[in-house]
Design goal:
heterodimer; A: alpha+beta; Calcium-transporting ATPase, cytoplasmic transduction domain A; Calcium-transporting ATPase, cytoplasmic domain N; 6-stranded antiparallel beta sheet; 20 helices; 51% helix; B: alpha+beta; Alpha-Beta Plaits; 4-stranded antiparallel beta sheet; 37% helix
Chain lengths: 618, 73
């Protein structure tokens, strides 16, 4: 609570004590009671009355301060002192609660996004200087001590450490980095001291981009927000006009009707005419939803996208890098006459001097130190493979052609992926299969998509039919289309958009590389593994910082929860308000009921909206 | 066209923010005006050469409609 709110709270408490003592003790003298009521009213409401007067001079009559002033002064006028005080008092309690809730959720989002570095330690003229990250230039060397935030993007030139990327990705696992590694601003340096060469100015660095994105998100308003703001625009004037009619016409035309009775009913109208609680609860919900999503490393670029995600009907996925790892790994080894480990060892040794992707996968799988003295006479045969002497034996590692050319009697393999044949001392020694692998998380993602009522999951890929079919079957996708050129992907996406229902949305999930036309065409474009990829952050509507497709499902879930809460608030608040209006028009509801309905609705709608901040990751 | 962002403080309530947004939308030289009550942020688009004039008009409208609110620069 800030100072202003504390002051307000104290005023409310004093007024409440005066109000209750007058109400409960009911002094014998009517005069003393009324004096107490008036003092309580002044303490609680003088600023509202002042504001109302100021606003009238500016011609703003449907302002809430004015409405409350009229309602309360009107109540005094017809001798309903307790009602007058109660209306003002509870109105102020509602307002205070509202600013408290808004303040609290602003702060909780701010702490969520507490990734802005305050300073950078930069080497200048042989000294370390602490400066604003904005003042650091490209190519300068900065020092990052344990526990500090990385202030700017750069490359490590000295030191090793574990990086905590939790605030950026929602990922608890720290990342190990060493010289040559790229580091991103916003991560926290866990244990080692790092020297980093700056590669991006602060305004262009990851942390600035992310903050900018999140801060702008609430500027793109959702349909629900626009609806409620339009509703408020008409609601208040209509209610006020009806109130004026109620106070004047019935007493004139209905026999026996008194002005004071009908004015009382009209005043109850004014009490419920303020739309503010309703108006705040909707953006508050979306704000919370966007916050809950950023907490798990999903950045939604606008409330409109968060709203649209709830109606996801079709999900179109890219294959490589989205559903699969996107890197080639040894999947299977079938050795003949050797152990699988030995076969891999010979292959890795033979490939030692090559930088071909296949060599890298083999060395990666072998993972032990390679004794380079044992490798001699490496010969790379373009398009076929490698021949080398390993520990005195001639080793052939390559494709079918290499085997045929050297007259090796080998067994052809029908496995999927890339097959590496190995021969040792002129004898066939077995095969190693290298392939891209489906992400563990992809299975989970597809399951969650189905649970969230996604009707169709489609994979579009440029890869070969046979491999795509295998991936689609393993993941139980509804459709897949393989061997597509980029323009084919656009065509298929358009076709899928035409096939879906009017209200349903099409979500495209890709790694953001070469996807720009499809990202633009789809209702919601999601870029994955976006940490460090500017192009992806730029092009997409929703950005997933990690490479887990299941985060798309989590985002859909958060979106649905947000929409559910927003809808509850709209329906609940409008129903209660209309009910109270009808009941007070026919004289059943008192002004007390109107006050409680109004403030109660505010408090409940706001509490309901705050629930979103507590959505759990899974 | 360039997008401008300003921090706007002192707005009492969400409805006041909406009303102010509607008034600002009527200003000719700026477009896509949006006030986010939650982020306390005013965004609008405007031609670069009109920036100063636009800001003057915006401030005038704010002084008239919501005297408690102000733009923080």
């Amino acid at each position: 609570m800030d100072k202003k709110m504390k002051k307000q709270l104290i005023k409310i408490i004093i007024a409440l004590i005066l109000f209750l003592s007058s109400l409960l003790l009911s002094f014998k003298s009517e005069f003393i009671n009324n004096i107490l009521f008036i003092i309580a009213y002044i303490i609680a409401g003088y600023n509202v009355v002042f504001k109302a007067i100021k606003n009238i001079t500016r011609g703003k009559i449907f302002d809430e301060n004015f409405l409350m002033t009229i309602a309360t002064i009107g109540a005094f006028g017809i001798g309903e002192f307790p009602e007058a005080v109660a209306v003002m008092l509870f109105y102020q309690i509602g307002e205070l609660f509202q600013s408290y809730a808004v303040d609290k959720s602003r702060k909780s989002i701010a702490s969520l996004m507490d990734i802005r570095p305050d300073y950078a330690n930069v080497y200048r003229n042989g000294e370390i200087k602490k400066v604003d990250p904005n003042e650091v230039n490209l190519e300068e060397i900065i020092l990052i001590k344990p526990g500090e935030k990385i202030p700017l993007d750069g490359v490590v030139i000295e030191g090793e450490s574990l990086l905590n990327t939790l605030a950026l990705t929602g990922e608890a696992m720290p990342r190990h980095i060493k010289p040559g590694a790229e580091v991103l601003s916003g991560c926290i340096n866990n244990d080692g001291t790092l020297k980093v060469k700056v590669t991006k100015e602060f305004g262009q660095s990851t942390v600035s981009k992310i903050l900018d994105l999140v801060e702008n998100a609430s500027s793109r308003k959702s349909k629900s927000e626009n609806f409620i703001s339009k509703f408020a625009k008409y609601y208040t004037p209509i209610v006020v006009i009806i109130a004026v009619i109620l106070a004047t016409i019935p007493p004139l035309i209905i026999e026996g009707a008194t002005f004071s009775d009908w004015v009382y009913r009209a005043l109850a109208f004014l009490v419920v005419s303020c739309p503010c609680a309703l108006v705040i609860s909707i953006p508050l919900s979306f704000f919370g939803g966007i916050g809950a999503a950023s907490k798990i490393g999903v950045l939604v670029k606008g409330s409109n996208y968060l709203e649209a995600l709830a109606s996801t009907e079709t999900i179109v996925c890219d294959k490589t890098g989205t559903l699969t790892e996107g890197e080639f790994k040894v999947q299977k080894i079938n050795a003949i006459g050797y152990s699988n480990e030995d076969l891999l060892k010979y292959a890795a040794y033979a490939e030692n001097y090559s930088n071909h992707p296949i060599s890298l996968s083999l060395k990666d799988a072998y993972s032990n130190e390679i004794n380079e003295k044992l490798v001699t006479g490496t010969k790379e045969i373009s398009g076929k493979g490698i021949i080398a002497k390993v520990d005195g034996k001639e080793v052939l590692v390559g494709n079918e052609k290499l085997m045929k050319e050297n007259n090796i009697d080998f067994q052809k393999s029908n496995e999927m992926g890339t097959i590496i044949y190995v021969a040792i001392s002129d004898k066939f020694a077995g095969v190693i299969m290298i392939a891209d692998r489906i992400k563990e998380d992809a299975y989970q993602a597809i399951k969650l998509f189905k649970e969230n009522h996604v009707k169709k999951i489609v994979m579009l890929t440029g890869d070969k039919e046979s491999i795509s079919k295998e991936v689609a079957n393993a993941l139980k996708l509804d459709e897949y289309h393989a061997e597509l050129l980029p323009q084919d992907k656009v065509e298929w996406t358009q076709k899928l958009i035409n096939e879906k229902s009017e209200k349903g949305k099409l979500v495209f999930v890709g790694d953001g590389i070469n996807d720009a036309p499809v990202l633009a065409l789809s209702d919601i474009g999601v870029a994955m593994g976006a940490l460090g990829s500017d192009a992806a952050i730029e092009a997409a509507d929703v950005v997933i910082m990690t490479d887990e497709p299941s985060k798309v499902a989590s985002a859909i879930k958060i979106s649905k929860k947000t929409m559910q809460i927003a809808r509850q608030n709209i329906v609940f608040a409008i129903t209660v308000k209309v009910a109270v209006l009808i009941l007070s028009a026919i004289g059943i509801a008192t002004m007390w009921a109107a006050v409680f309905a109004d403030v109660g609705v505010s408090v409940l709608a706001i509490l309901n909206a705050l629930r979103i901040l507590n959505i759990k990751n899974n | 066209m360039k997008t401008y962002k300003f921090k706007i403080k002192g707005l009492d309530c969400a409805n006041c923010a909406n009303e102010l947004e509607r008034s600002l939308q009527k200003i000719d030289v700026i477009s896509n005006v949006s006030i986010s009550f939650m982020m306390q942020r005013l965004t609008f688009e405007c031609m670069e050469e009109n920036e100063e004039a636009a800001l003057e008009i915006i401030k005038k409208v704010i002084r008239k409609e919501e005297p408690d609110a102000y733009i923080e620069e």
